[in-house]
Amino acid sequence: MAQSRHAVVIGGGIGGLTAAAALHQSGWQVTVLERARSLEPVGAAISLAPNSLRALDVIGLGDEIRDLSAWEGDGGLRTPGGRWLARSDAAAAAERFGGPLVLLHRATLIHSLAAQLPPGAVRTSAAATLVDPGAADRPARVSTPDGELEADLVVAADGIRSAVRRALFPEHPGPVYSGFTTWRVVIPVPGAEFASHETWGRGRIWGTHPLQDGRVYAYAAATAPAGQHAPDDEKAELVRRYGDWHDPIPAVLAAARPEDVRRHDVHHIAEPLPAYHRGRVALVGDAAHAMPPTLGQGGNQAIEDAIVLAHREDLAAYSAARLPRTTAIARQAVKVGRLNMMSNRALMAVRNTAVAALSKAGPALFLRGFDGIADWRPPQQPYASGVTPAGNR
After folding, report:
1. What angle do CA 235, 238, 241 make, to 5 degrees?
2. What is the pLDDT of residues 287-338, one digit of tens each?
């Protein structure tokens, strides 16, 4: 891969733009093809754990993103009535994992990543189709509305419904329904004062977190058949499901308009792919290993993918480095989802008692579930250390 010159990135999301920025800094000519009319992501926030922030350090963005983020301070886990099951300790988490967990709007991260690319590198309204994955003796080919492009490397960052993944691995079953649906909202909530929290109910969860710009990011999830929608609007559905939960949830719901609420069913890739590459094509992010959001690692793992990909000599080495790790994290996210969405009252009582006991025993025990995830470090020195991209390869 070191001799390749032109990389085509299909998808202008977090994984695609991180890959494009890392490859550009490593001397590649990069073209990003995004089918949407703009890079502006649909309203939601993203948590970046120390693992992905260290990956962003490699392209010189880690500190910028840390400064732009709303820091997730002390908070914890609650019951719908407001009782604290567990309190999180931001200082303990930062000490254990070598850095903080931060929260920011996805648009903030997208804009920072896009700013790393030269003018004209990103093409919007540019639906792309893989024509030929290429091989050692020929380039890959991608069709666009403006004609075909040849590429020494194609980075497929086209999401959970990846057409490139289907083309490369037509026998793979693809994503499956995770058993629950989610709602997300980013809005101002005047006068709301609260600690960051996630609340676990019966087959339902809710989370409320402050953003640096003063807005509130709230999300909810509930077990439901796939494809359902509210008979009236999704705000009304949230009021029915969460309107009697503890503060500040009623205030968030009162401040939201129906058009502020976005609902999406959750899917994940249950059967791992045999590899994350074929020919001259590499899959990153949800295209490779879509997982439930229950660990908050989907975007973090896409960032890791992108940085590792840009510093591997061949795509087989990229697959070997990423497939075992992301498969393990995806499986853990599925298990956590089952724990979160539990509906049996007796088992819920056991779960809550166990979580409370772990929290009282010490924050280190509660944080142990992120060992091997949040403490990951990229395999190369940060560019900010003074080592050039070429020297890292």
Report:
1. 155
2. 999 999 999 999 999 999 999 999 987 999 999 999 999 999 999 999 999 9
Pick left, alpha or beta for residue 147 (phi over 0 → left; psi -120 to 50 → alpha; otherwise beta).
left
Instruction: Report CA Rg, the chain.
Output: 21
For position 205, what pLDDT does the model report? Answer: 97
The C-alpha atoms of residue 388 and residue 393 are separated, in whole angstroms, by 9
What CA–CA distance (Å, rounded) separates 17 from 108?
Answer: 13
Task: Provide the pLDDT for residue 383.
Answer: 47
Buried b (16+ CB within 10 A) or exposed e, 377-389: ebebebbeeeeeb
Pairing of strands 147-151, 140-144: antiparallel
The closest of 48, 52, 49, 41 to 13, measured between CA atoms, is: 41
Q: Which residues pair with 140 in a beta bridge?
A: 151
Q: In the Cβ-directed half-sphere of 149, how many Cα atoms lie within 13 Å?
A: 25
pLDDT of residue 93: 79
3-state secondary structure at position 139: coil
Peptide bond connecting 248 to the previous residue in cis, omega within 30 degrees of 0 = yes
Distance CA 279, CA 95 (A): 42
Contacts of 257 by beta carbon, 8 Å cutoff, 6+ apart: 187, 235
pTM > 0.85: yes
| Ranges of the chain whose pLDDT falls below 50 | 1-2, 383-393
CA 133 to chain centre: 26
